[in-house]
Automatic annotation (TrEMBL):
It comes from the Bacteria. This is Nitroreductase family deazaflavin-dependent oxidoreductase. NCBIfam families: hi_GC_TIGR00026. GO terms for cellular component: plasma membrane. It comes from Nocardiopsis gilva YIM 90087.
Length: 135
């Protein structure tokens, strides 16, 4: 099973042949954000689902009290890089509205049931993020 930096490297090197299909039937994309403090580029493997032409990820951070760095980065710099298998593109990232989250959360918890456990562990509302391919 791949994690972290090795996951990113293998995914990039194989156009997702290694790393796209992950644990318990989940699929993973690579999200590249620009650091809000450093300006450096950071790539993170994330479980996703498609929603029409968009891609959806969850900023769970395992239910920690604080949002993950990648989420803080994309709120400061919403233009991100995305790789789904061999498809690399620029996207606009935005936090789902309350209504969108109500629809999308159950879809994400269906593929990764621990999201419900993570939400139960923290007082912060865990954001759902929509990645919209740039025109």
């Amino acid at each position: 099973m791949l994690f972290g930096k090795e996951h990113v490297e293998r995914y990039q090197a194989t156009d997702g042949e290694e790393g796209h299909d992950w644990v318990k039937g989940t699929t993973v994309l690579l999200l590249t954000t620009t650091g809000r403090k450093t300006g450096k580029r950071y790539t993170t493997p994330l479980i996703y689902r498609s929603d029409g032409a968009d891609f959806v990820v969850v900023a769970s951070n395992g239910g920690a009290p604080d949002s993950p760095s990648w989420y803080k980065n994309l709120t400061a710099h919403p233009e991100v890089g995305v790789q789904v298998k061999g498809d690399r593109f620029t996207a606009h990232a935005r936090t789902a509205s309350t209504q969108e989250k109500a629809r999308l959360w159950p879809l994400m918890a269906e593929v990764w049931p621990d999201y419900d456990n993570y939400q139960a562990k923290t007082d912060r509302p865990i954001p759902v993020v929509i990645l919209q391919r740039a025109e």
